[in-house]
Design goal:
The chain is of the alpha/beta class. The N terminus is likely disordered. The strands form four sheets. Strands 1-2-3-4-5-6-9 form a seven-stranded mixed sheet, sandwiched between helices. Helices cover about 30% and strands about 25% of the residues. The protein is built from seven helices and 16 strands. The chain has one domain: Ribonuclease Z/Hydroxyacylglutathione hydrolase-like (Metallo-beta-lactamase, Chain A), CATH 3.60.15.10.
């Protein structure tokens, strides 16, 4: 196997506006997005209150994103019932402790990532290994199980590879009363060989290869689940990775695309919801992720040389 460990591409800092907040957006009758351009929280409105997916990269997400977003979207009277965390990279759970503290909501994630959140090298601040604030996980989410909150059920799909216990979710949403089926892909890519800032912990070439193969396999699993359930909406906790928001950074030569966020803002009565991409669009997005993972596996295997 190729033994070279390279630093990942990172655009110049002024272009990498990861934490630039955006106005909250109503995506469907019962689905909202609160956060910044790069990562945030989906809020599912159920007859029993709100279920949140992910807690963003901001320890104060509750005060800066969630509460202002609920107020602007007319959701101030809704109780936050649960927070489901897709995976244990800190940019997806940093706001969770504060959300749980203020709402006493249930926090659910996978067994594997509840441990990875504590012990994973990603989840410590700087070289001094100061741990990030973490919530108390009091619900271990299980593969294939539906978690019901009133008139909505959120189905869990175990999709490791991005992290040891990464989860994806499928659930119904409605657009002017018309039902659609959404899939939130918890991870998006494979962690390439990497040396952490402390100079000690690494993602080895072999680990990256194994993760890539696993990620490809579980992406195919999610592809199959989406086909069985007829999913026609594809989302990611990083909204720019599903076209909901523009990329937070543009490499030279990248085309400028109108985001789904902008299309939703400009949508007129009677126009179709631009986030609905049909089953073919969901399968195409997942197929692209499968192919990217296999390309990473091949490059780390040494067979591509």
């Amino acid at each position: 196997m190729n033994g070279t460990i390279k630093k990942p591409y990172m655009p110049p800092r002024p272009e990498w506006v990861m934490a630039e907040p955006i106005e909250p957006i109503k995506i469907f009758d019962d689905l909202y997005y609160f956060g910044n351009k790069a990562v945030g929280t989906y809020a599912i409105k159920t007859s029993e209150g709100l279920v949140l997916i992910d807690a963003s990269d901001n320890v104060n997400a509750y005060d800066e994103y969630i509460i202002p977003g609920m107020e602007k979207m007319g959701l101030s009277g809704e109780k936050i019932r649960a927070l489901f965390i897709s995976h244990a990279h800190h940019d997806h759970y940093l706001g969770a402790q504060r959300i749980q503290e203020k709402t006493n909501c249930v926090v659910g994630m996978s067994y594997e990532d509840s441990a990875f959140m504590v012990y994973g090298a990603d989840n410590h601040e700087g070289n001094n290994y100061k741990p990030y604030p973490i919530p108390m996980v009091n619900l271990l989410l299980e593969d294939g199980k539906d978690y019901t909150f009133g008139d909505h059920a959120i189905r869990v799909v175990f999709t490791p590879g991005h992290t040891p216990g990464c989860l994806s979710f499928t659930f119904d949403v409605h657009d002017n009363g018309e039902k659609h089926r959404a899939a939130v892909m918890g991870g998006w890519g494979v962690n390439r060989p990497y040396i952490y800032r402390n100079g000690v912990d690494t993602i080895s070439v072999r680990q990256s290869f194994d993760d890539a193969v696993l990620f490809a396999s579980t992406t195919l699993k999610l592809w199959t689940r989406c086909e069985e359930e007829g999913c026609d909406v594809y989302l990611n906790p990083h909204p720019y990775l599903c076209g909901l928001t523009p990329p937070p950074a543009r490499r030279p030569g990248m085309p400028v695309r109108v985001s789904l966020y902008e299309k939703l803002k400009e949508r007129k009565d009677g126009e179709p919801n631009p986030v609905v991409v049909r089953l073919e669009g969901v399968k195409a997005a997942l197929s692209e992720r499968f192919n990217a993972a296999m390309k990473t596996a091949l490059s780390n295997s040494g067979l591509a040389e």
